[in-house]
Specification:
Number of strands: 0
Structural class: mainly alpha
Largest sheet: none
Distance between the termini: 51 Å
Shape: elongated
Order of helices and strands: HHHHHHHHHHHH
Number of helices: 12
Strand content: under 5%
């Protein structure tokens, strides 16, 4: 890894290059020099991302976006990647992140069309920004639009489609629609078993969520059964002493004690 002082000197030098080239771009060679500025600012922004300097990265990436937008024929792929990188470093600022994702979504609509997979991808990215700001309603709207396109173009069992369905179920749970969520989770578990395999983290995650929903409804036995399914899968994948397994074991032991069952959770049948 580059030493911090070397990185700082390179960053300072490169910043001066960007600043000076920006001053002279109108005089020297027009669009060619501006494209060079875009590439340099983008590279510096990504370097700062790798170093964890998100504020500085955002400044460089914002500069790159502004320069790219000033070009009469800026390649859409370049602008999209810039906006995606900018949204990434804005993860701690959901409002700004959402604004950047909206710009990216508008660009994908203009470039690829409303019913393209690219536009669906941008809807998912915008949904994540809304979720980061606890805006479930707008996130749900974006995810529903994305799911419709994914199902049509990729199929119901594509991992991207399944991921969208997973997030929609979580929104349903947070809204307190527990009975409907359980039905959706049961279908989702079946789909995940086919897509990721019966013993996968994805399947275990849905079993655990389903168990939590049952417990919220006061259905201890059904909740325990789902938790046991999750426990068995995660234990097989990570080992009995892994932190997620230990945490689940504590939940299960608590349920076993409350329900009056004999033995501990790990000895109960999941069938």
């Amino acid at each position: 890894m580059m030493p911090r002082d070397t990185f700082s000197k390179l960053l300072l030098c490169s910043t001066r290059v960007v600043t000076e080239s920006g001053k002279n771009s109108a005089v020297v060679s027009g669009d060619d020099l501006v494209e060079l500025d875009v590439d340099l600012a983008h590279t510096l922004g990504r370097l700062c991302m790798l170093r964890g300097a998100t504020d500085t990265a955002a400044e460089f990436l914002q500069k790159a976006v502004e320069l790219a937008e000033a070009l009469p024929q800026s390649p859409p792929d370049t602008s999209l990647q810039l906006l995606r990188d900018l949204a990434t470093v804005q993860a701690g600022q959901p409002g700004q992140m959402a604004e950047t994702c909206i710009r990216a979504r508008d660009l994908t609509k203009e470039t690829f069309g409303l019913f393209s997979v690219e536009h669906a991808d941008s809807n998912v990215a915008l949904a994540r920004a809304y979720l980061a700001g606890s805006d479930d309603e707008n996130a749900r709207t974006c995810l529903l639009e994305a799911r419709k396109v994914y199902v049509e173009h990729l199929g119901a069992q594509d991992p991207d489609t399944v991921a969208v369905e997973d997030e929609l179920v979580r929104i349903m749970v947070r809204a307190g629609k527990h009975q409907a969520a359980v039905k959706r989770l049961q279908r989702l578990i079946k789909t995940k078993r086919e897509v990721f395999g019966p013993r996968s983290f994805e399947v275990a995650d849905s079993h655990q969520l389903c168990g939590s929903v049952y417990l919220a409804q006061g259905e201890e036995k059904l909740g325990l059964k789902q938790m046991l399914h999750a426990y068995d899968i995660i234990k097989a994948l990570k080992g009995v002493n892994a932190a997620p397994v230990v945490r689940l074991q504590e939940v299960i032991d608590g349920l076993v004690g409350e329900g009056g069952f004999r033995g501990t959770g790990r000895h109960l049948s999941t069938r």
